[in-house]
Specification:
Length: 378
C-alpha cells in the first residue's frame, strides 16, 4: 500500500538548541521570512486578566532583536491550530493576522489583521471578513500575492461546524485593509487549518476537503495566470470520519518545486505522508510514508531545501511521552533517518512549525507549560 517506504537514504539531521527571544510561558510560535531573507519568530504572551499580547523578533547575525509588540491586550484564541502569522511584502511591509474569541457566543471567532511599515508601529487591528455574525471565522494562512497585497485563506462556518463550511480568500492591502473577499470551496472540513505557498506560477492552497459522505482528504487549489484552477484531491486516502480531525496539510514551495505533508487515519492506519511536485503543483509523485508507527498524531510541517529535498516534522505518541520528530525526504521520495527534536506531553508540544532561510532550517514548538522552544536542524 505505502509507497516509497523501502527507499531510504543516509542524510540525517542534527538538532541544535538555539537561544530564544520568547518570554517564559509563551505559546503558539510561528515563523515568517522577512523581505531580506532573515527569520522572523512570532509568539503569544499572557498579559493577565485573560488577555494576550502578540509579539515577534528578528534573527540577526548577532542573535535575536528585541521583542516587538504587534498587538496587546487582545482576546486571542489559544488553540494550537489557530496560529497567528506574519507575512512580509516585497517592500518590507509586515502584515499580521490572528484569531480572537467573540463576546456574543462561545462559537464566535473573528480574524484580525494589522500592518506595519517599520516593524514597530502597527495599524489598529481590523476584522478581515465581511460577515460579523457570532460564528466561526478562522484557521487562516497568508502569503504575499502582489507587490502591495497579501492573500488570506480561512474557513467560514456560518452554520456552525455541522456546516457547510467554506474556504474563503480575503485580499488584504499593505495598509491592513480588506480589498476583496471570495468563496473558493463551499464544503470543506470545518476545523483543519489552511496552508498557502507561492510557487513560480502562482499561489497554491492545501486544505482538508469534505464530501457529503464525510470523506475528508487533502485538496489543493492553484491560482495561476489570474484565475483559479479546479480544486483536486492530492491523494485519495478516502478517510471517512464523522468528526473533525483538527489536523492540517503543510505545504512548502521553492520555485517550481512543491511538497505537501499531511496526516490521515484512512484504513485505520494513522500516518503522516508527503508528496512532491516539480511543476508548481500541477502533478505530484507518489506518497512517501514519513511517520514511523501507528502512534502518529500528525501536526505536520514541511520546508524545501535548495537541492529539492524536503524536511518534514510531525508528532508521535510514545509509551511515556509524545515526541516531535523530523526527517529529510529526498527529491525522489526516499526517507532519511528520524531525529527527535522535542519531547513532552502531547498538549505541551503545540503545533510545531518549520522555516527554511538561506542555508538554515529552524523549528519552533511548545505551549504555555513548557514555553516556546526553538532549534536549528542541520
Amino acid at each position: 500500500m505505502l509507497l516509497a517506504t523501502s527507499a531510504v537514504f543516509a542524510q540525517k539531521l542534527t538538532v541544535e538548541a538555539a537561544d530564544n527571544p520568547a518570554a517564559p510561558g509563551s505559546l503558539q510560535p510561528n515563523w515568517a521570512l522577512a523581505a531580506d531573507g532573515r527569520a522572523l519568530l512570532s509568539w503569544v504572551e499572557p498579559a493577565g486578566n485573560g488577555a494576550y499580547t502578540l509579539r515577534y523578533a528578528v534573527r540577526r547575525a548577532t542573535g535575536w532583536s528585541e521583542a516587538r509588540t504587534i498587538a496587546s491586550g487582545r482576546k486571542l484564541w489559544r488553540h494550537p491550530a489557530e496560529m497567528p502569522e506574519l507575512v512580509s511584502l516585497g517592500d518590507g511591509t509586515l502584515l499580521a493576522h490572528w484569531v480572537e474569541k467573540g463576546k456574543e457566543s462561545s462559537d464566535a471567532e473573528d480574524i484580525y489583521v494589522s500592518s506595519s511599515k517599520d516593524g514597530v508601529h502597527w495599524t489598529e487591528p481590523a476584522i478581515a471578513h465581511h460577515d460579523h455574525s457570532p460564528e466561526q471565522h478562522g484557521l487562516a494562512s497568508m502569503a504575499a500575492s502582489g507587490p502591495r497585497e497579501a492573500s488570506l485563506f480561512w474557513l467560514q462556518a456560518l452554520k456552525g461546524e455541522d456546516g457547510p463550511v467554506s474556504l474563503m480568500r480575503t485580499i488584504v492591502s499593505a495598509d491592513g485593509k480588506e480589498i476583496r473577499e471570495e468563496d473558493l470551496d463551499s464544503d470543506v472540513c470545518s476545523c483543519c487549518p489552511t496552508s498557502v505557498v507561492k510557487t513560480a506560477k502562482g499561489l497554491l492552497v492545501a486544505y482538508r476537503d469534505h464530501t457529503p459522505q464525510d470523506i475528508r482528504d487533502i485538496a489543493v487549489l492553484r491560482f495561476e495566470n489570474g484565475k483559479w484552477l479546479p480544486s483536486k484531491i492530492l491523494h485519495a486516502d478516502n478517510w471517512k470520519i464523522n468528526a473533525c480531525p483538527v489536523n492540517a496539510a503543510a505545504a512548502a514551495a521553492r520555485d517550481n518545486r512543491v511538497a505537501v505533508a499531511w496526516y490521515t487515519e484512512a484504513d485505520d492506519n494513522p500516518r503522516v505522508q508527503v508528496m512532491m511536485s516539480s511543476d508548481s503543483g500541477a502533478t505530484f509523485g507518489n506518497p512517501t510514508l514519513v511517520s514511523t508507527s501507528k502512534d502518529a498524531v500528525g501536526y505536520a510541517a514541511a520546508v524545501l531545501n535548495q537541492d529539492g529535498s524536503a524536511i518534514v516534522s510531525w508528532l508521535e505518541e510514545g509509551e511515556k511521552s509524545a515526541h516531535v520528530f523530523a526527517r529529510v525526504i529526498s527529491p525522489t521520495g526516499a526517507a532519511g533517518p528520524v531525529v527527535t527534536v522535542g519531547e513532552g506531553s502531547r498538549d505541551n508540544l503545540g503545533y510545531p512549525k518549520l522555516l527554511r532561510t538561506g542555508t538554515e532550517t529552524w523549528i519552533a514548538w511548545g505551549n504555555t507549560k513548557i514555553g516556546v522552544k526553538i532549534a536549528r536542524l542541520k
